Amino acid sequence: MDKPIEKPYAHASNPCRQCMPLGASWAFKGIESCMPVLHGSQGCATYIRRYMISHFREPIDIASSSFDETTVIFGGEANLEKAVLNVHRQYHPRVIGIGTTCLSETIGDDVDRFIIRIRDKYPELPPLIPVSTPSYQGTQEEGFLRTVQGTVKTLAGQYQLTEEAIPQSDGPLLNLFMPMITPADIRWLKEVLSRMKIKGTLLPDYSDTLDGGMWSEFHPMPPGGTALEQIIAMDRADGSLELGSDYPAEWRPGYYLQKRFGVPNARCGLPVGIDSTDHFLSILSEITGQEIPGACEQARSRLIDAYGDAHKYLFGKKVVLFGDTSTVEALYRFASEVGLDPVLCFTGSPSGILEKTLEKLPLPEASANPPLIKENFDFGDAEALIEELQPDLLIGNSKGYKISRKMDIPLLRVGFPIHDRFGASRQRMLGYEGTASLLDRVVNEVMERKQSKSTVGYTYI
Amino acid sequence: MTTAVPLLKEREKQVYEKGKGQFEFQCERKSVAGSVSQRACVFCGSRVVLYPVADALHLAHGSIGCASYTWDIRGSVSSGPELHRLCFSTDLREKDVIHGGEKKLMQALRELIPLHKPRAAFVYSTCIVGVIGDDVQAVCRKATEELGIPVIPVQSEGFNGTKKDGYRVACKALTTLVGTDDTTPVSKISINILGEFNLAGEAWIIKEYYRRMGVEVVSILTGDGRVDHIRKSHRAALNVVQCSGSLTYLAEEMKEKYGIPFMRVSYFGIEDVSKALYDVAGFFEEEDPAVMGKAAALVREEVAKLQAPMKTYRSKLAGKKAAIYVGGAFKAFSLIKILRTLSVDVVMVGSQTGNKQDYAQLADMCDPGTVIVDDSNPMEMSRFIIEKDVDLFIGGVKERPMAFKLGVGFCDHNHERKTALAGFEGTLNFAEEVASSALSPVWRFSPRRSDSGKRS
Ligand code: SF4
Ligand code: SF4
Q1: CA B264–ligand 1 middle distance (angstroms)
Q2: How far is the CA of A20 from the centre of ligand 2 (A)?
Q3: Which tens digits make up the pLDDT trace of A326-358?
Q4: Cβ of B68 and A17 within 8 Å?
Q5: Least CA distance to B132: which residue of chain A?
Q6: A376: closest CA among A24, A19, A12?
Q7: pLDDT bucket at A79, cuts 50 / 70 / 90
Q8: Helix B270-283, helix B290-317: angle, nearest 10
Q9: Mean pLDDT for chain A?
Q10: Which fold would CATH assign to domain A311-453?
């Protein structure tokens, strides 16, 4: 990774980011029967649970190794061992994911070594997946990525599979890796794969675990998620596809599988908008040799039609886009495609990838100037800029609400977290249908604004 | 259907079912590693107490997450400045962890204080600060001198105890402000309201009662809090402390230092609010006998207003079963009483931080068969929800999805609530909240309740 982008001053105000272990916990929730343990003090785990619960509105259990004063002096090995054993005893998970926190990293705990010793002592334990996620090295986005990669490194090709567990399929086997998207969008991806008769292993797959039905009985861990055997078998796939921004190769699970096991790997941005979805489907078809289903063509054609119907409402409207890198990149491509003018794009992540990616893209049709692209950026930083830019619409997570309210600019909630609107998990933006749903929301936001601000009170807009 | 959920062995004595065996309860223990405790950390406790001080700068010294997760999470409202609703962090990064964060902290204070012009600043140490060895006290002293406002260290490293210890640390921080204004005149019949955080404007409701009784409220600690009010709080005649103790330490400290007596009260439920007002009136009986008369009139008037609507709720809710899990045990006492007035049975009750005495009192109050838990976790609580066939869960945001998943109504009685539940009108709001969740028709579809969850 290049040198992270530095801030010109010492404080952060109203951050546009959370911390790495949140991303880790989220990714672990996409593995079947997996229990995350955060190695550090109790507070981090509790806060992260609370934060995620307010977004997903689902039970989210995250255990902690519960450091205290003495742990800080003597190291956290005994606590980790106890935590793992207690989780094993109470939850019977098939996988235990362990994320470190700022505290355990700062005192210098060597979790990898601890785990080797714990495994030796208790061979009955399920696979343990360690990931290093100290927040002073990145945001939830980096934590999520590291965890997906860490999971693949720990499991793929590393355990014996029984004859029945080895994936059998008439069609091609594909590993599909995703950044933080909504459960509904994961469901769409699965549908596409099934329509194309591709046997896919999606990782992480929290489409049920973080958006499931009511229970008739108690479940220690919510049903759903990518099965352990599927991850172990990832080295046998015909190919991998990584969705999301162009993260450095060394962070990426698909890249690892390619280097280690020779599984061919491809990457493309999130399929939002016509071009990106076209690109996604053609890559999918290329690596698997399967045809793009006809239903996609109809959805595409309807979306183009909707673009036509919508264009006048949107052309030249100034938008500010913010959130994690992959989401902002996808929104930017969509915005350019429908004639919006993205004047400012920012992320809390300090990775430098957003800027590198967006700079290479052509200037949007409706833009007079290139957009401002900011990383390691918070709402405190954004406020003055937004005041100056006077955009028509903000698109991003709920934390933009303070600015939206203060400056009376509408905020369309997309991404994470969404703490002040309903149905975050069911939001869609991937694929032609998902894009249509995003388009509807954007247009309606603009329309509503126009209607409520007009003195006439138009009833046709 | 019940799925057997094993209790963690270490926790066996933190769970008790009334009527089954001896009451040998253990509490005030550290959370067990690997148990999904609902507790947060010392930092969290300090934030609860100090957060509502609206004209102070609250700076979390440490990594970004601790600040991010506490940004505007509480419903404490202010009638004026709203500095507390912004989120500030020193945002320590890798190089700070290696080289120390003192310089960055000083720099952050130099940036933020002139910009936001707070009346005081609280600097919260979070976990890593306790490890990298920053001398936060020294930085704060220097900043106080240089920047002209009190810059107060709050030693709230998360690992240094429980949430309760965070209360103590926060009280310690408050003591540095208390007593620094000795000139503003204060009535003889005056109180401080302690442990009231003005969630959804609750402090205003309570303050209005006292106004009607002719009692001056010198300072509310810390709801709708102002630095200047805290400074003169030592001049009040009495400290009235709400709930199980977030501010008890301060009350004790003020008793010792300024000789101000304190009493514990609760403002939840008709019974307890009335008692609180009578107790305060009783305290001032000698000074001014009229206060008692006014209190009595007030209670009579307010209770009369509640009679009819409460009766309606009672008839609708009779026989419903509730589970309670709250931060402090004192609140649980009040809730049990309110639910009784609503004819709701309490079948499980617990708290994150109760002490032995609290639990003994709970065991005393409860009906046989009621389960009592300390520092519980979702798995345990789910087990009791099913076993006891609960209709309604009263707790905080973290418990909500668990209740809903099992098809059980839920009522938020935590620091994040947006509806006022204190005072007489709060009692009515509470009844309405309980009814609107427990009586909702949606639970009919819950697969646990009936077969209608499955399509035929
Ligand atoms: S790092 Fe420490 S202070 Fe911060 S949330 Fe975690 S436990 Fe609390
Ligand atoms: S200490 Fe680190 S891991 Fe814990 S909440 Fe704070 S930023 Fe996140």
Answers
A1: 30
A2: 8
A3: 999 999 999 999 999 999 999 999 999 999 999
A4: yes
A5: A106
A6: A12
A7: very high
A8: 170
A9: 94
A10: Rossmann fold (3.40.50)
pLDDT at site B244: 60
Answer whether A66 sits within 8 Å of B127, measured CB to CB.
no
Residues with CB under 6 A from ligand 1: A 41, 43-44, 47, 102-103; B 41, 43, 66, 126-127, 158
Q: What is the pTM of this model?
A: 0.94
What is A20-155's CATH number, 3.40.50.720, 3.40.50.12370, 3.40.50.1980, 1.10.760.10?
3.40.50.1980
At B331, list the tokens. Answer: 């609140």
Q: CA of B68, closest CA in chain A: separation in Å?
A: 6
Is the pLDDT assigned to residue B24 strictly greater than 90?
Answer: no
Delimit the domains of chain A by residue range: 20-155, 173-211+221-294, 311-453
Got the DSSP string for B299-352? HHHHHHHHHHHHHHHHHHHTT-EEEEEESSHHHHHHHHHHHHHTTPEEEEEEES
Query: Is the ipTM here above 0.85?
Result: yes
Q: Do A79 and B159 touch (CB under 8 A)?
A: no
d(CA B326, CA B415): 10
Peptide bond into A277 cis (omega under 30): no
pLDDT of residue B3: 42
Alpha carbon of B211: minimum distance to chain A alpha carbons (Å): 34
Question: Under an 8 A CB cutoff, do B159 and A41 touch?
Answer: yes
Distance from the alpha carbon of residue B220 to the mean position of ligand 1, in angstroms = 28
Which three-class secondary structure string do you get for A20-34?
HHHHHHHHHCCECCE
* Closest atom, ligand 2, to C-alpha of B127: 1
Establish whether residue A44 lines the binding site of ligand 2, counting it when its CB lies within 6 angstroms of any ligand atom: yes
| A167: number of Cβ within 10 Å | 16
Question: From the CA of B169, which ligand is nearest?
Answer: 1
| Atom 4 in ligand 1: residue holding the nearest Cα | B66
Check pLDDT > 70 for residue B452: no
pLDDT tens readout for residues A352-408: 999 999 999 999 999 999 999 999 999 999 999 999 999 999 999 999 999 999 999
Going by alpha carbons, the residue nearest to atom 3 of ligand 2 is A101
CB count in 10 Å sphere of residue A361: 13
Q: Which domains does chain B have, with CATH numbers?
A: 9-25+318-417 (3.40.50.1980), 42-175 (3.40.50.1980), 190-302 (3.40.50.1980)
> What are the tens digits of pLDDT across the range A155-165?
999 999 888 88
The CATH architecture that domain A173-211+221-294 belongs to is: 3-Layer(aba) Sandwich (3.40)
Tell me how far apart the alpha carbons of residues A340 and A322 are, in angstroms, rounded to a whole number: 15
Q: Which residues of B touch A89 (CB under 8 A)?
A: 6, 8
Phi-psi bin for B133: left (phi > 0), alpha (psi -120 to 50), beta?
left
Q: How confident is the model at residue B1 (pLDDT cuts 50, 70, 90)?
A: very low
> Are the beta carbons of A111 and A98 closer than 8 angstroms?
yes
